[in-house]
Specification:
Two copies of one chain form a homodimer.
Chain A (H helix, E strand, L loop, with lengths): L22 H15 L2 H12 L6 E2 H7 L4 H13 L3 E6 L2 E6 L3 H14 L1
Antiparallel strand pairs in A: 1-3, 2-3
Chain A binds a DNA duplex (30 and 30 nucleotides) through helix 3 and helix 4.
Chain lengths: 118, 118
DNA sequence: TTATATTATCGTACATCTACGATAAACGAT
DNA sequence: ATCGTTTATCGTAGATGTACGATAATATAA
């Protein structure tokens, strides 16, 4: 019998790959990730996921409950965050467990630095 | 006779105001600024303006020349950057001199930190 | 199997974004 | 006053974003 194991493999991004990434690619990556942050609801989702401790991973329903939007709208925002590279999800029974990509915030900051100061 | 004085009053933003800003406002400001970065052309404009030394301020034509877009399209991107708080412009004869808002990049980074880690 | 819970997707309706050419507006120069 | 330069705005067209209810899909539970 399956217990409430909210599992998300800790998928991470290595900030060092940026050392080998050309400026044009950096700009595209930055604008793509920025699109993810370009809505208050998505900023809030990132905040929630970044807040949630590893042993208590966040399932979709928790996020829906925390936002003043319909379930289908939240699902769309989660999709945008997945497509723009901020989060990943894993099916856990009838539910889906969402996690923030490890190190993505630092990665984003570095992208801002590199793209604007290069 | 007017010489080529590319003047832009150095308009700046004080990062300390964030200390008195509530979370909800931070999220709205972050998503608004992020919208500004959500296109490669606008990232490039920010990079150019951040690169240009103060004594050689950037006029609109320079930016148009640096991008593979029509003048009207660049003008629209400049408008978005103005509306989202990244840059400001000053009329200088028939031309317009654009400048990045002082300290806006650090301000943006701090917004990312506060909005995601709060 | 059937029912229940959870989440994605579909269909729809507006709004906003993106890009362009054409035009207007503002100013300096002649 | 007229011309040329520079930049914003308009009009248009197509793409994308946003929000919702309804429905489908998936897995567990009964």
């Amino acid at each position: 019998m399956k217990v409430d194991n909210r599992t998300c493999k800790p998928l991470s991004i290595d900030i060092r790959v940026l050392g080998k990434t050309d400026t044009e690619t950096c700009k595209r990556m930055l604008s793509e990730l920025s699109k993810g942050l370009a809505h208050p609801a998505r900023v809030e989702i990132i905040r929630i996921l970044n807040h949630t401790p590893l042993e208590e991973r966040c399932i979709c329903g928790d996020i829906v409950g925390a936002l003043p939007l319909a379930q289908s709208s939240v699902s769309q925002h989660l999709k945008v965050l997945k497509e723009t590279g901020w989060i990943h999800g894993e099916i856990d029974g009838p539910r889906v467990c969402y996690c923030i990509v490890g190190g993505i915030i630092e990665y984003y900051m570095e992208l801002v630095r590199r793209s604007t100061q290069e």
